[in-house]
Fold:
Amino acid sequence: MSPLRRFNPAQLSDDLAESLATGREAVLADLLRHVENNRDSRPMQHVQLVAPRGFGKSFLMKLLGIELRRRPGLLVVTLPEEQRNIRKPFLLLDEIRRLLEGRPPADVVVRWSAEDKAWDLAAATLDSAIAERCPDGFLVAIVENFDHLLATAFRDDKAQMRLRGLLARENGRLMLVATAPRAPDSDYSRPLFKAFARLRLRPWTEDDGLAFFDRVRQSAGEPPFGEDERARARAIALFAGGSPRIATVLYEVLQTRDAISAAAALDKLVDELSDYYRNRIDSLSPRAQDVLDTLLRIGEPKSQTEVAAAMGESQSRVAEVFRELLADEILTDVPATRSRATLYRVTDRLMVHFYRTRLLHVGASSLEAIADFLAAFFSAEEQRREAARLRAANRAEEAAVFENLLAGKVAPPWWMPRPDAGASPAGGAPPSATPDGDPEIAALLVKAAELGKRGGHDAAITASRRAFARAEAPGGVAGQAKAPRGWWAHA
Structure:
């Protein structure tokens, strides 16, 4: 079982957290650079870390706290991830001081009669507490879900002006590192506009996901992946859509060895993550929810033009909504292989499974709903064995899913490479390697096939896209790029 199973990095030991750290080295270095620069700079530069839910903000804050506690002249406190009890501005400062001083929760309570003077008193006592413990340094306060605080405790301009005044002091001793799904200081009409330097967390790459799985196995004392296990791990890494949280929970699917167990594991994960996905969907604007629903109803990937046509709207009207969905990492854009159009798909494939099974009720059997996942998770030989096993067990509907995959009646999963990628359906050379076309296109596609065989799928996809771009250019041999039917045809 994954040591991060319940997504609470705060409960991890420092050693375990550092042993699992993956793909965030550059952002952590940027955070530390801002902290070090504040030793000699006033007013201090405060930082906001922006990323969708599930992208590892809490885990990165755990790593930041570990590193800061090792450095002289610095204090650090991390507020709990949820701060729904902080409903007044001064309570934020009082809670930071309580954690700094290690006092019990009962020491911080709301006093209605003293609210007018409470902010100034809280700021003064916090300054004194910092100076007492670190005369020549300052305090870094890590505040997660800062957008919620702005919408509640600091919702009016007067409260935001007080906070901005505190953050902009020339003699300031408090640095704020805040996290949020969206930039909380982007409204130019509000007092906190551009009060923070902004850093973003990007989705994990396929290689990041694989590296994380390697670290999980090492931390558990397990041997490295074998060849077949690594192929499944690659499928899982891509299915997660770049989300560390989803990669973490999907790790358990790697322990399954048959289709029924894999389907049951995915269904269990969807049950456990239902609130997470509902919150992600509810955080979108109503029109973004409409576009997402339309895309998943008509099938991915689709262009903006196709989605707009399905909705009976103009492309210009849906374009702004697509920008929102891309900014929130809900959608990912992919180039079409047979035109210049840009296509869009949902980034997190487990989210698609949630939507299809819980909202749209797609799939007559548990396996039909995850046919694209099974095509990538099981090799062709494993698919044949599963089909035979299920047929022998009188599970005709489930067996038919694999039989249809093997017969080519179900399109191969365009969103991830197969474990046995690289060969043509007949097992020979890729059909792109023909002698009568553009030799550069042929060379690129042969290179893509070879990279796929060796597991270098990111590089293989890049090579394929270069070939397609050359073929579609004026005078290009477009037909040659349309010929492939292996996994690279969907890159």
Notes: The mean pLDDT is 84.
